[in-house]
Amino acid sequence: MPSKRKSSDSASKKALTETNAQLSAEIAQYKRRVEQAEAAHRKMKKQRKRDKAKIAKAEAAAAAATSSNESSIIERPPGQNRKQGWKLIDCMQLGEESVATPDEVEENKRLYNAMMHAVRTAMAGAQWDYSKGIKQPPEVLYQVYAEARQRQPRLARYQNDWATHEMALQYCTNRRAHIRKVGGDLSASSNKENHNINVNSIENHCSKQRKKQNAILKPNNTIPNRKDGDEEGRSDEESDTDNSEEDQDTHGEELGPPSSGSESE
């Protein structure tokens, strides 16, 4: 009996020893895994700190570049708008050459249109007199420049409001040409919303255009003999010639590049 008891005890001890050894091996393995995980975590924290430092540095550099770019003054380049490749949007550094991606091109176009809208709104609020062209009273010009800068602060970057001046000149030129085309009165056109254009003049202009188109579309259209009853046609041509000459004189007198005096005003 004692021998059997000893043999069973030794077998139990052997089994326990093997179990303990197995458990010790598993515990050691788990410890190694924990140590590896902790090392990886410490490495990740260090990498995260480095990444945060890099991001902060890049953001600071971008903010400094943006601030310097926004605060920089843009002088008016030499030349005249729409002549010899001089384009207003490019001179304002909003053209395609000033950016690198299509999204930036579209954003600059939206910004340019918003600036133009601000200038037109300011001209309407200042009761711009289109019969005087760009030669407005100093208080009118000052009001337009100030209100345009208030609506679009970026316009303040352009020295002596030259960009606002060019936008006003461009819109004024187009508006004067439109009013003359439909037979309106420049002296009665004081702002954008109320041009007081004679409705009969507009209808007459449209009817003339329709008659010309109908004459072209007739199948057996022949050139009429202009010996008799052609005084009206000649008078129209002469009046058109007179109007075109008047436009050229007016444009040459009023619509040149802005002088230093007008810009300072």
Features:
8 helices, 0% strand, disordered C terminus, 265 residues, 68% helix, mainly alpha
Describe this structure in words.
This protein has 265 residues and is mainly α. It has 8 helices and no strands. Helix 3 runs antiparallel to helix 4 and helix 3 crosses helix 5. The longest helix has 70 residues. It is rod-shaped, with a radius of gyration of 40 Å. The termini are far apart.
Chart the SSEs and their pairings.
Elements: H1 2-71, H2 88-91, H3 102-125, H4 138-151, H5 162-181, H6 199-217, H7 231-254, H8 260-264
Helix pairs in contact: 3-4, 3-5
Brief sketch in words of this structure:
This protein is mainly alpha-helical and 265 residues long. It has eight helices and no strands.
Report the uncertain regions.
191-199, 221-265
Shape: rod-shaped
Strand content: under 5%
The strand count comes to: 0
Report on the biggest sheet.
none
Q: What is the terminal separation in angstroms?
A: 124 Å
Total of DSSP H or I helical runs spanning 4+ residues: 8
Q: Note the run of SSEs as H and E.
A: HHHHHHHH
What share of the residues lie within helices?
55-70%
- Mean pLDDT across every amino acid position: 74
Structural class: mainly alpha
- Spatial extent as radius of gyration: 40 Å
